[in-house]
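Progress note, sequence design subtask.
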């Protein structure tokens, strides 16, 4: 029930095990103006930078694309901002040759230090490094095709047909997002996107 989305607010605003899942639900359900207000509040806390970028991509409003491009200049947030950019615009970084070399000063995770207890992989490990100049140029040329205040998913306004297409052809994270959108729209029950696509 979409009227119950406000129940998620404490989970969205507080770092914890449920924050990411709450954001996935809330920013697909809230009206765009309310979602923007929640994002603005989150953005006042610098420790919430990652969830702000994720929420921006989930919401899909091109209003935030120029801000996402500025975040691509920050090494710790660059790849996540690139993913959010793709979530909204549908631009494939490989296809459009928008990938930059990995910055040399990036500390490797896990590192080589035997004393370091953090052996988890970098959560952005598989995301490409954006070439900010090329991304800026592409958006300058194509941004006018997007309407501010409209929700987009991978470059198109959200429709059941488009979501079903991406459910079949997207990356695993894109397929999961499409399945969640479809379930929240009442179109289908939530599909298990961990299973392989059967051709």
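Output:
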């Amino acid at each position: 029930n979409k009227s119950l989305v406000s129940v998620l607010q404490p989970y969205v605003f507080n770092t914890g095990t449920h924050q990411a899942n709450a954001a996935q639900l809330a920013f697909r359900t809230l009206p765009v103006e309310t979602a923007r207000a929640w994002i603005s509040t989150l953005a006042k806390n610098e420790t919430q930078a990652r969830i702000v970028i994720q929420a921006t991509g989930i919401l899909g409003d091109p209003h935030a694309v120029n801000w996402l491009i500025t975040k691509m200049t920050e090494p710790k947030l660059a790849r996540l901002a690139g993913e959010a950019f793709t979530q909204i615009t549908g631009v494939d970084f490989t296809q459009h040759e928008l990938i930059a070399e990995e910055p040399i000063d990036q500390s490797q995770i896990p590192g080589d230090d035997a004393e370091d207890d953090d052996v988890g992989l970098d959560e952005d490990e598989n995301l490409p490094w954006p070439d900010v100049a090329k991304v800026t140029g592409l958006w300058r040329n194509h941004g006018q095709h997007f309407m501010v205040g409209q929700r987009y998913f991978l470059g198109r306004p959200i429709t059941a047909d488009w979501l079903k297409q991406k459910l079949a052809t997207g990356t695993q994270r894109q397929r999961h997002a499409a399945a969640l959108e479809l379930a929240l729209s009442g179109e289908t029950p939530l599909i298990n996107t961990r299973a392989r696509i059967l051709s």
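The two ends are 34 Å apart (CA to CA). Work on this subtask will continue into the next period as scheduled.
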